[in-house]
Amino acid sequence: MANTTLLCVGGSNIDLFGASFKDLIPKASNPGTIYSAPGGVMRNIVEDLGFLGSRPYFVTGLVDDEWARQIKMSLRGKATIIPYAKKGIPTGVYLAILDKGGDMSVSVCDNRIAEEIPYPFIAETMKRLGDTKDILIDTNLSKETIDELVANKGSRKVYAEAVSPDKSLRLKGSLKGLYLLKCARREAIALIGNKDLSAEVLAHLLFALGPKVVVVTDGERGACYESSLESGHLDPIKSNDIVNTTGCGDAVFAGLCLCLSKGLSVKASLEFGLRCAKVTIESDKATNANLADLRVDLATMIAVCRKAG
């Protein structure tokens, strides 16, 4: 089993959260708390990987401002950051309003800088790093960059996180080149175009479009997976201490990709990803340093996989 090093490419931003004490009242001032933290889909994934003991490379959009400095500080010792900047475009910002149960009610994301990252910048990075790096991407990248990256991946495996229904459509021209497509049910619906299908059927239909592995998450109903060797459904791992659901999907992706890159089965990899989500949901931020507690279990899983050949 190859000892791969991961190259992550995608969005970073500062998360601004407004958490209501009571049921949200639209078009009114709701009492609650307001706080901020480094975030962004791929930044969250990179930090999760760092907590789990990996040290990925991270290509992301960061300009020279205070928010970028906070993001860099959050990943110190966890990743090697390779920043891309473009004059006139700020570091990304994500604003989320949470209901009293910690679920996101509405959000707005300004991550234009991630869309500006050009493929030649990524290609030059891959050239410097060598040919043995598996690649994790999110759909904050432009469709053009995604298409070029997947088309020129060579022997690398590409793992894609769909991010949102609208942005998931940026993957349509590259599905056949993906090793892993991970999406929530609403994103799978956008890709397939039928809102009445179950997560299991959506996973099957997406797999037929070309990815080697498909995972469709469905909130409290768990997740479905399909590959040429295995398929099935897994229930979520329940928590009695739900604080904030933001970042749970990112944690699933981090754990899933890390395990797949180490040669574990899809089922075992997804089971570990769901464990990561359970830990993450118990934090008021989009990541949770307690993921480090799973390192021993991860090492045991990898050792068993190696022994089995």
How would you sum up this structure, described in words?
- With 309 residues, the protein is an alpha/beta fold.
- The chain has eleven helices and 13 strands.
- The strands form two sheets. The protein has a nine-stranded mixed β-sheet with strand order 5-4-1-8-9-10-11-12-13, sandwiched between helices.
Short description:
The protein is α/β, with parallel strands linked by helices and 309 residues long. The chain contains eleven helices and 13 strands. It is globular and about 55 Å long.
What structural class should be given to the helix and strand makeup?
Answer: alpha/beta
Please write the string of helix (H) and strand (E) elements: EEEHEHEEEHHEHEHEHHEEEHHH
User: How many E strands?
Assistant: 13
**Fraction in helix:** 25-40%
Give, in spatial order, the strands making up the sheet with the most strands: 5-4-1-8-9-10-11-12-13
Largest sheet: 9 strands, mixed
Separation of termini?
A: 8 Å
The gyration radius over C-alpha positions equals 18 Å
Residue share in β-strands: 15-25%
The coarse silhouette is: globular
Q: Number of DSSP helices?
A: 11
Give start-end ranges of low-pLDDT stretches.
Answer: none
Write down the overall mean pLDDT. Answer: 93
Topology diagram in text:
Blueprint: E1 5-10, E2 13-20, E3 32-39, H1 41-51, E4 57-61, H2 66-74, E5 80-84, E6 92-98, E7 104-110, H3 112-115, H4 119-129, E8 133-138, H5 143-151, E9 158-161, H6 165-168, E10 180-184, H7 185-192, H8 199-207, E11 213-217, E12 223-227, E13 231-234, H9 248-261, H10 266-280, H11 295-308
Parallel strand pairs: 1-4, 1-8, 2-6, 4-5, 8-9, 9-10, 10-11
Antiparallel strand pairs: 2-3, 6-7, 11-12, 12-13
Helix pairs in contact: 1-9, 7-8, 9-10
